[in-house]
Q: What sequence folds into this?
């Protein structure tokens, strides 16, 4: 019976991964072979409904094809465990915010007191063209964004498209076959590799950095392993990937604030976003602590 369960878990994982990587990688490979299609392909696969919706679609199709009737590790009753909710909404975002501050403490000359990025990106939405910022106003802006990230529930449900696949479905399947620690690392690495087509076309890191785009792809895998530890820890602890979506949403929002006040004179592999080594550093320390607290085996 155990062997049959193990074989079914393997089959479901293979179907899920085939769908996700097929949808994302086949267009990517086509774009490499036919360079003129690259811009169009990137526009399609980077569209949130496609990239974030693909894992959720893969869960639906996999469950249908393999007759999987087991309950998903998902519930909208997030306030039932208030400690888990507060931890997910507040702690990872604070770690990312501190990582951004650390970046600017190391590279204070990269601070943009004229807010040129804000003016250029949000001018069409009413942002002023002439902005005078101070260190204090930058910190206040960051604190406000951090506070907003803790309650930005629409972003949670956008992120859930990814997280219901990687955290709510694939992670428990991996845990059936190996230790929780190994499952979390592999799950995070696979999630990162799913981002490879986007990084190849310049998302997160642009194109002007050492070893582009391959160092960016490697770095993104590292980032998703680190962030994935936080998300997996909460998913395994609560049996609910909705907390992972809250962490993911907070990371996406707070992670943007560094770019708003950066002159971008440093390598994107360093920061200030949490996709860079320095921006990620505080989150990494927390991930190490959580990883050590993971159980040897996960009992579903």
A:
């Amino acid at each position: 019976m155990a062997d049959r369960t193990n074989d079914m878990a393997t089959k479901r994982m293979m179907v899920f991964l085939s769908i996700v990587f097929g949808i994302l990688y086949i267009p990517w490979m086509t774009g490499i072979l036919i360079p003129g299609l690259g811009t169009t392909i990137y526009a399609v696969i980077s569209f949130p409904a496609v990239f974030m919706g693909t894992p959720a679609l893969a869960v639906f199709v996999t469950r249908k094809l393999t007759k999987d009737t087991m309950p998903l590790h998902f519930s909208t009753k997030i306030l039932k465990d208030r400690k888990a909710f507060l931890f997910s909404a507040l702690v990872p975002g604070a770690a990312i915010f501190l990582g951004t501050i650390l970046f600017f403490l190391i590279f204070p000359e990269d601070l943009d007191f004229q807010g040129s990025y804000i003016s250029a990106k949000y001018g069409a939405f009413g942002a002023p063209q002439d902005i005078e910022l101070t260190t204090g106003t930058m910190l206040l802006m960051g604190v406000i964004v951090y506070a907003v990230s803790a309650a930005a529930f629409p972003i949670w449900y956008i992120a859930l498209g990814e997280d219901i696949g990687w955290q709510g479905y694939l992670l428990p399947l991996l845990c059936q076959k190996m230790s929780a620690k190994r499952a979390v690392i592999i799950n995070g690495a696979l999630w990162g590799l799913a981002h490879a087509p986007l990084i190849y076309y310049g998302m997160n890191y642009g194109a002007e950095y050492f070893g582009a785009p391959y160092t960016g792809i490697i770095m993104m895998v590292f980032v998703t392993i680190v962030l994935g530890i936080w998300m997996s820890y909460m998913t395994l602890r609560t049996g609910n990937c909705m907390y992972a979506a809250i962490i993911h949403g907070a990371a996406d929002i707070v992670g943007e604030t560094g770019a708003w006040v950066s002159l971008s004179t440093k390598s994107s592999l360093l920061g200030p976003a949490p996709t860079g080594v320095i921006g990620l550093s505080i989150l990494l320390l927390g991930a190490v602590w959580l990883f050590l607290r993971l159980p040897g085996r996960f009992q579903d």
